[in-house]
Automatic annotation (TrEMBL):
Signal peptide: none annotated. This is DUF7580 domain-containing protein. Residues 407-429 are annotated as: Disordered. Pfam families: DUF7580 (PF24476). Residues 87-406 form the DUF7580 domain.
Length: 429
């Protein structure tokens, strides 16, 4: 072994191979983990620079131009990815709505986790879409506000095999899945095969529960109630929540997924078994009926081009300040009789935006993008069904949020490593 290492050292050219540093890398696991972590961080930064950088027009180096073209051709287009996610999410909703039509006296309510809308780095044409959700068991629920919830997962993926002709292998109603886990501490899984024109739901499979929620009790809060009752969380948690809201809007808004409910009154959180709301997983409620399909009713006096993106901008302000937008209303924002109008919260949002400038630049940029729509061309409509809107939303709203989140996570990781090093040194004394 010693001879092999000496031979390795002697093969170096250029004089300085830092042999002892390399030996330390192999000798100590602590050093390996630290250096591999640093290497991963700088690789991520390098990829970001290569992906988003553009060559100077005066550059004549054909090798650099070829490298740029290669990187651009292999990178996943966020706008195209978002479009595939929207298509698959719409098909998933439509397929589940067919299974949701049962003979129960009270319809099953479903609450779908928006925490799953974080897949813009994946290719949905191969990976598909997956949602965690909770379904209310109307048989077990009590006549008062107490409800029983069952945990479930549903996924949809492009089919790689023919449609099964045996009807016993397909799910008919959601009740079949609920009955499998009723009275048991288990969850169920649904899988949908997407054949483009036809979607087929396999019979459910059972699995262990992953979300440690209170299964019985009215153990959930709207985001409006969370803002009122819960202490302001860390900046990292608030930025993560804001990023989840933004990604889920890009994936689900202006689709069958309850567009009219996209506000703090209808976005909910469930209590964990420790009695605290799970802020990592906001949920959107649906019963798969006509009310779930309603879009936003837009007041013609509204001075914004897309009410959904406006709602997101207001949500981002509420998440950052951890107070409802109504808290900042002034008499000049209201009608003469003191009642709010269609534009009341827009005036408040722009005023709050001015106060946020310079505090957290990436977050400010995202709110600015939601309120001002800087990518919008004069006279053009703003709809997430359009590629230009998705592309602008991704660049102007999502990317700044993600950049701020990555910086804060790196800072927290460094602080944790420093704390561990301090404790370790103290332990040897």
């Amino acid at each position: 072994m010693c001879a092999s290492m000496l031979e390795f050292r002697n093969t170096g050219t250029g004089g300085q191979w830092h042999f002892h540093e390399r030996r330390k890398f192999f000798q100590k696991e602590e050093n390996r983990k630290k250096w591999v972590s640093q290497l991963a961080k700088w690789n991520k930064r390098l990829k970001r620079i290569v992906k988003h950088g553009k060559l100077d027009g005066a550059t004549t180096d054909e090798a650099e131009r070829a490298l740029c073209r290669s990187n651009q051709s292999t990178a996943i287009d966020p706008s195209n990815t978002a479009n595939h996610l929207r298509i698959l999410s719409r098909r998933l909703f439509t397929t589940l709505s067919g299974c949701w039509q049962c003979q129960c006296t009270k319809p099953h309510e479903g609450r779908f986790s928006l925490g799953n809308c974080n897949m813009l780095g994946s290719d949905p044409t191969t990976c598909g879409v997956q949602f965690q959700f909770l379904v209310c068991d109307s048989i077990q629920s009590q006549p008062d506000s107490t409800m029983s919830w069952h945990e479930a997962t549903v996924s949809i993926m492009p089919a790689y095999r023919p449609i099964c002709s045996d009807p016993t292998e397909n799910l008919k109603t959601i009740c079949e899945a609920v009955r499998m886990v009723r009275g048991r501490d288990l969850a169920f899984q649904l899988h949908i095969w997407d054949h483009d024109d036809v979607q087929v739901v396999e019979r459910p499979k059972v699995c262990s529960r992953l979300l440690k929620y209170q299964q019985v009790l009215p153990g959930r809060l709207s985001f409006k109630e969370v803002l009122r009752t819960e202490k302001k969380p860390s900046l990292a948690m608030r930025i993560k929540l804001a990023s989840t809201f933004a990604r889920s809007l890009l994936q689900l808004y202006e689709s069958p997924w309850s567009s009219s409910r996209w506000d703090k009154d209808h976005l909910t959180f469930f209590f964990t078994e420790y009695g605290k709301p799970d802020l990592d997983r906001p949920y959107l409620s649906t019963t798969f009926d006509k009310s779930s399909l309603q879009g936003d009713v837009v007041d013609p006096s509204l001075v914004h081009s897309n009410i959904g993106i406006l709602k997101l901008g207001i949500l981002l302000i509420e998440v950052y300040k951890w107070k409802p937008i109504e808290h900042y209303r002034q008499p000049g924002d209201m009608n003469q009789d003191g009642t709010p109008n269609a534009n009341t919260d827009i005036w408040v949002a722009f005023r709050m935006l001015d106060k946020m400038e310079g505090s957290l630049q990436g977050y400010f940029d995202s709110v600015f993008g939601c309120l001002n729509l800087p990518w919008k061309q004069p006279g053009a409509r703003v709809s997430l069904e359009d590629e230009s809107t998705r592309d602008g939303f991704y660049r102007v709203v999502l990317q700044p949020l993600q950049g701020e989140l990555e910086k804060i996570e790196e800072d927290e990781k460094r602080r944790e490593e420093k704390l561990r090093d301090t404790k370790r040194r103290g332990g040897y004394r």
